[in-house]
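Entry for the shared binder. Reason: the reviewer on the internal report wants the predicted structure included alongside the sequence.
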Amino acid sequence: MAHQDKFAEDSINELTILQSHRKPEESIDRLTYEIKNLQIIRARQEAIIEAFDGLIYVCSADLEIEFMNDRFVERTGRNPVGEKCYPALHERNDVCPWCVNDRVQAGQTVHTEVLSPKDNRYYHVINTPVYHPDGSISKMSMIRDITESKLAEQELKTSEERYRKIVEDQTELLCRFLPGGTITFVNQAYCRYFNRHRDSLVGKDFIPLIPETDRDKVFDNIGRLSRSNPVSTHEHRIIAPNGEIRWQEWTNRALFDEQGNIVEYQSVGRDITDLKRAEQALHQRTEELERSNKDLEQFAYIAAHDLREPLLAIAAYLKLLERRYKVNLGADGNKFLAGAINSTLRMDGLIQSLLAYSRVGNEVQCFERTDCNRILDTALANLLSLIEESSAVVTVEDLPTVTANPSQMLQLFQNLVSNAIKFAGDTPPKIHVGVTRNDNEWQYFVKDNGIGIEPPYFDRIFLLFQRIKNRANYPGTGIGLANCRRIVEHHGGRIWVESTPGKGSTFFFTIPDRLER
């Protein structure tokens, strides 16, 4: 107990020295005041020691333990006051090689961090001198377990190093800058792009790297960033080291302090000059193609329209010739005349098909809510004589209402159904029209039991003038399915066929489900 009250003994010794120097006439009140003052000091020391959440011990100049706080006693399981510190605390027979007692005896306060081999934990140790009235100095060691903070610090360093490697290895440009535009960090890719050393960029304004015509756009984009909208992406031009104007895309992120104020921006950029040039070239090419297609459509429409006039005149004269001179022409003459009339009629049908084909992309768009049940009923009514003549059986599912061009949808259904009847083969045609729902579109189908199609022709049949069957047995212009594809694509859909030769075909097409166009 006497060893633990070393500080109390020092206080009493100080009081004794004060008493030895007092004059006899000094009152007892003064002495009482000094005692109370020393008691207050002692209470403060005890409170500080008690409040300290670590371990404390004090040893003399010859390394004998003079004091150990309760936490340290609990830690060691005993109170080694009066023993040498190195065997009692470190189980050594000689002074510890890391001992700093000499420096403390010289009046220094020494801070150290150690990794204890006993429990593999980190400790921060403050070794400070304690001065006694007799001139001697003790070493007080205050020890705090800092393992968690040390491990967190190491993890932070590892994370920062990992982040730095990721940043430096990026091919994208990365920089950070203050609200005023002063650069605080750039990665190596940024330095390589601008052919500048990091030291010549950090601390400088990035604005001179941007053409004056683009600066307002950059300021406007950065100025819109806020706590609720911390990230944005924009494109602007920059001045390359060789003076060339190039395009970049930047994603800016605002960084905030605890009060919500923007303290810094981080930006990630990439060069999009080649992409911009490709987009511009594609745009120009698209405009040229659109002009060319319009010219071709207009030419086809005008040419087909003008071709019908002389053709109809030829047909009229041939029919007149047939009526007036049929009895005089003989069998061969009538045969030749009938062939000429059929050829003119087939040519007229071909021209009308071309006109219909050219109108699909050339006419003003007229999309409206279209009841496909009514459209299909009209198509079947138009084909009634063909259906009765071929004894065809057509079954229909309930069809949806879609946003479409009614006249084109009528032409589409009519072409597909007539096509199924035309290529029925030797058995009466059985045709089924239905629809299924796929995501944001309707998928229609027209299924038949006809002669089918060989796989190599699945795509070819949708091209102009492509006929895969004999004209004598299967008449037609070779434009019907091409027209169907043009109509479907004009509506933003797709058309294709699945077929097995001898077992029939199923034509599928899609129409997007949208309320407006």
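Summary line for the report: The first helix runs from residue 6 to 20.
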